[in-house]
Amino acid sequence: MHAFTFKLQESCRIELLKKAWRTSVETLDILRTSFHFSAEVGRWAQVVHSSLDFKWTTEKRRSIDNAAKEFVQSLQFDAEDALHRPPVYLRHVSSDEDYLIVVLHHALYDGLSLPMLFSYVKAVYGGDPPITTQFHMLSRQITSLEDRATDYWGARLKGVHPWAFPREVSSTADAWRASKVVNLPKEVIDRFCRRYEVSAQSVAQASWAKALAIYSKRPDVVYGQVVSGRTMAGSERIIGPVFVSTHFTSR
Description:
Number of domains: 2
CATH architecture of the largest domain: 2-Layer Sandwich
CATH topology of the largest domain: Chloramphenicol Acetyltransferase
Largest sheet: 4 strands, mixed
Structural class: alpha+beta
């Protein structure tokens, strides 16, 4: 879930802003998408609504403090049926100044999508909506790429057996957590990364792979990571969850 609070300029016309968001939801199918679980087939279905379910509320309060937190808590996302309606919730908060709280639930957007979404709404507000590509127009290509990736990695990992991380405490719980603090100053990590021209994330992944290799007493560690899938024509204009799952092998 994403939640944002925007301070509106004095010149902002609230009704025009509301209309801009409404038009954006009408135009962008990902903002009219909900998810439903089918018990008969044991799979989730993604549904794009043809009718508009536009959620805009207005609240007057003395202070903006905790407004976003209280708004999120009022939406109750813990039940499965929370996924049955499109994900956009908007609240105009009128205090000493005007604010707009935007909540996007069950929305998986990459780093490009959210700035693009807000820029799109801003352009609609100004009367000049940009050209965009709908997510469903590339969904089949994305699915095809995922199927090919699954076949590739299935063949690549043939004969590989999973290994369970040993528990150091006796527990009957299905989930458990353990941690260990490594007192390594951030400055040391940054200096190392600059020296070898790598990212801190790469160092962390390599360290985790090394730790797993030591504990498992196996030379190979395989893990997956979600990366951007904006490699197809038109994908640079998509507002939505454009991604593919790519696996990395560490030795």
